[in-house]
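User: Please run a holo structure prediction.
Assistant: Happy to. Please share the sequence and the ligand.
User: Here you go; the ligand is pyridoxal-5'-phosphate.
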Amino acid sequence: MTQNSQNSLHEIDINLIEMTLDIMKYVISRITEKNPKLGYFKSEEDLAAMVGKTITKEGIGGEKALNIWKEILAPASTAIDHPRHLAFVPAAPSRAAIMFDLVASASSIHGAYWMEGAGGIFAENQAMQWLVSLTGMPNGAFGVFTSGGTTANLSAIVTARENWRKHNPQNQNKKGLVLTSIGAHSSIKAMAQVTDAEIMLIDTEESLTEADLRKTLSKMQPETRSRLFAIVATGGTTNAGIIDDLAGIAQVCAEQKIWFHIDAAYGGGALATDTARHLFNGIERADSVTIDPHKWLFSPYDCGAVIYKNPELAKQAHTQEGSYLEIFKDKGADGFNPSDYQIQLTRRVRGLPLWFSLAMHGTEKYKKAVERGIELAQIAGTKISRNEKLELVREPSLSCVLFRRKNWEPEDYRQWTYKNHKEGFALVTPTKWRKKDGSFETCARFCFINPDTTPDDIDAILATME
Ligand SMILES: *Cc1c(COP(=O)(O)O)cnc(C)c1O
């Protein structure tokens, strides 16, 4: 230790060792806890009153800050991996992946360029190779890990648009158009807006079919059609787990030479299963695919992925230029540069936790863990059908179950959600589903990700609707 490191942020001393041990102890107890506390939010005023001021000139010390985290802030955050957290799309990262997330941080790897990140990127790419193999996309297809489904979708949309513009100089000044269905995730609309593209939504409550698509295209004005640069299908809608007719849509896109993007951010994990894989037939013909390992492939936040049939097109759209970047592209540092294939430059090697967990456990355990989510949805479906007070709104699809409590109003679902959450028992949220007459019904929704959720958990939640 040199003298001028005495007050350094980076000093290695007894405080650092103690803080490190305390944090490891906390992390180990958190990940070995089979039933983590669910957690419940508090208002900002309440948190401010309990926590006080933590950022001071002198610092409050690691012990105090960690205690504030443990005693106040962690309980005010919901544990997404709780076995009775069945809301939104939850997550259940494997313990191996969580531990390796710490390694990714500790290793300080800049994951943008091979020159700096080769070892980490090599490992990420082996995990990516497995993801690509699940899609059945042709040789040469490859992808990169992104911060999530939103950035994966954005990276794909930008690639599609640049490709469209390249093919026809007249498109340079045209406002592009993205065609999808109302079942598409909100991020498709939001990212179309980011790229200043118009979005058109085909109105289908169930899966988007080839016939729906052909009908929409046949009615489209030539001017509108000339601006259409991408069709987005969903491989497992977030609300109900519905998979569009990927093979039919692929056929139309191939005939009409339109970029075909599949958003399988949530459903993509099911590609690993035997029971649901066939529902995705046609995915191998996509130009780009989004899959979120932080949803149904047991990675910690945040980890999405975008895969391209022709990564060269993504490279043309995303490569950043700068005199300070030239060395990374020099022959001497040749290799796969993840920053060339998506919107982000500096990036965490966020595929590394997935790589370690896959390498440790093998893909068979992943397959079984995803399969369990589908089974749990089927089990819940049977229990709901047999319960006089409950009814399925539609058959379970992937790991989503939509169901109603007879005679409940939207307010009843609201109260029920807050009560279960506040009691630290479960987080199950309502959603909406369109009825035959066009009006929307509020109903309950399960989304199963965590293989540790049990049939007893399902019974116990259903019992709160008595
Ligand atoms: C969750 C989800 C997204 C958005 O992914 P983030 O990782 O939250 O950015 C996009 N599409 C679908 C279908 C999703 O379920």
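The radius of gyration is 24 Å.
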